[in-house]
Design a protein that fits this description.
single chain; 7 strands; alpha/beta; Rossmann fold; globular
């Protein structure tokens, strides 16, 4: 999917994902004095959390708009963080420059996963950490996202879909990229809204992927896809009076 992550208001989603930044930093044992790269930094969650620990942080994202927002956040916080525009598959940084190279729910959207992981390994110093988070294939929000993805043809000759939800696949992909000693754990994020409809309304209005889906599919097809997504959200809802769920994710950490 060719999504412009600067479209809409991704900062809303970034705020919901912020707790995962601390989990990722803990997994990579990031402390003061470390140099840290946040790949697919968005509005800077991981980089800014690393800077708050006393690390020297760098963020890279393909969206110039999100990079600008990350710079604004860093300036307000007085954080030791710099942000660059660039692609995960071609990081504009030298070899072995970072003690830890991290990606929170970002490298999983790279067009070429193998190349993106190889780049993460390349820019990490020998003995440094490479770590990422990726969504597990469970829960109503994942189900709604899968319905949206399946509304589009996968593309002839594109090869098998990356299995970021599969711990064994992620470990194998990191190993193939040159990392070693891969470990995976599971964590979760809670989500809530007034109702499943309210949750989807907000994402349809503000989230880049849902906005792109609505725009690309057109009104007629979107109505059917939206109905399927709402059914999935209702089926997995944990609160009959509102909307509440927990989305689980993998945390994979490896050594360079």
């Amino acid at each position: 999917m060719e999504i412009d992550w600067g479209d809409g208001d991704y900062a809303r989603t970034a705020r919901a994902l912020a707790p995962a930044a601390e989990v990722l930093l803990d997994s990579a044992s990031v402390t003061a004095g470390h140099s840290v790269l946040d790949v697919g930094c968005g509005t800077g969650n991981v980089a800014l959390a690393a800077a708050a620990r006393g690390a020297a942080a760098t963020g890279v994202d393909p969206s110039a708009r999100l990079v600008a927002l990350a710079r604004e956040r860093a300036a307000r916080a007085g954080a030791d963080a710099r942000f660059l525009t660039g692609e995960a598959g071609r990081l504009p940084l030298p070899d072995g420059d970072f003690d830890a190279t991290l990606s929170a729910f970002a490298v999983i959207f790279a067009p070429d996963p193998a190349q993106a992981l190889a780049e993460m390994v390349r820019v990490t110093r020998p003995g440094g950490a490479v770590a990422l988070t990726s969504w597990r294939s469970e829960g109503p929000i994942f189900a709604a996202g899968r319905i949206l993805r399946e509304a589009f043809p996968s593309g002839d000759g594109a090869g098998p879909e990356p299995r970021w939800h599969d711990a064994a696949w992620v470990a194998e992909a990191l190993g193939a990229a040159g990392a070693r000693d891969v470990r995976t754990t599971t964590a979760g994020l809670g989500y809530s809204a007034e109702s499943p409809e309210a949750w989807l309304d907000e994402h349809e209005e503000h989230h880049p992927a849902w906005r792109w889906g609505r725009r690309t599919l057109g009104p007629g097809t979107w109505r059917g896809v939206r109905a399927q997504m709402l059914a999935a959200l209702h089926a997995g809802n944990e609160d009959r009076s509102a909307f509440r769920t927990r989305s689980h994710y993998l945390v994979a950490v490896a050594a360079r």
